[in-house]
Amino acid sequence: MIIDGHNYCVPQLDAAQGYPTPDVKLRSLQAELGGHSQPVWRVRDRAQADNSTLIDPATGELREVEWTRDLGRLAWSVDGETYTKQYLPPMLHNLECPPDVLIREMDYAGVDVGLLHTYPTLGSPAFFNGYLRDAAARFPDRLYRLITVAESEIPDDVDAAVEALEGEVAAGGVSGLQFIPGFYAHPTTGGEGRRDSWHGDAMRPFWDAAESLRLPVYFTLIGGRGSALYERSWQQTYLDEQRVLMQWMERYSEQTVVITHGLPWRAFMDGGRIRLPEEVWQVFESPRCHMQLLIPIQMGGMWEYPWKESEPAIQECVRRIGADRLIWGTDMPMVARFCTYRQAMDQFRTHCGFLTDDERRDILGGTAARVMGLVDP
Predict the structure, then answer these.
(1) What is the mean pLDDT of the chain?
(2) Boundary residue ending a domain (26, 54, 84)
(3) Domain count of the chain?
(4) pLDDT, tens digit (0-9, with 9 covering 90-100), for 136-182
(5) Domain limits at 192?
(6) 235 and 268 Cβ atoms separated by less than 8 Å
(7) Cα–Cα 20 to 30 A to 145, which of 138, 165, 215, 247?
(8) ∠ CA(23), CA(127), CA(336), 5° rounding?
(9) Average pLDDT, stretch 344-351?
(10) In degrees rounded to 5, what are phi and psi of residue 365?
């Protein structure tokens, strides 16, 4: 069974999708796009521009922009010019990827099951949980889902957050909870965020409930994303988040953990190679900690298929973590900026010659199936 451990259904990007207005939603998206590595260009002549059209690099503040569309792609106007970047791949229509489109892509590539991830720039937690619930219900043998919360709002009404978890699990199709620690302190929808730690006493009832529900927790350790890229080192903030996660895992030692997206490969580039510090492996000393491998979505802007330059780092992951704790994922449909779905799969199916057949089976579905409870552990 081939399982894509990380893909998406995307509701229309420039609609409100559970937020009070489309402008509130797009303000959230602006923070994401303003720190994203996809190139920016000026629409009238395709001249190269940069993220300073979205975020003031001196202050990290979002600029005042007017959102629009150009040739069906998302665009923004500032200082009399219109700019764009290809956040969604250009083949998508109406700035969305509904479940039917994802299933068609999966069928063509030969992917049996997809695990739908969440992100607040795609919709509010309540809206997006419902959107993915409907997708999983339409394709119950093909699509499973993670559930989301507004991280910074949990301590305000922890009972309501626990009730939401229990309700989503009861609704079906749930394979885990996705939690983004960076948004606990710096919510993408604005506001001050929290100064206390996301694993402190205020969060204890929430985490106890996740443990009692036996929900695997998918942690997205984003480090510095969006406007934070102008303020701090992504490498350092990532390692800081890993250290807090290790403290959390000491308390919840029986919880299954998945680190989404893999490591921030770009943050550890040195002389054209990925050089990973010893500290990065400490979190995987827990046998319950797994990691996704998403190479093309992170490195596709630098390297070409089949991303041979990444193989020493992959080999080190197999040696240090074990293929039985590694999960292939794609970020589909976003990965189509750089390659086809099948190419993303073939990186591990036909390339990476150092992998054994058993290791390929684990990475391409076996590990994900065990974490998701589709097969016995």
Answers:
(1) 94
(2) 84
(3) 2
(4) 999 999 999 999 999 999 999 999 999 999 999 999 999 999 999 98
(5) 3-11+91-372
(6) yes
(7) 247
(8) 80
(9) 98
(10) 165, -35
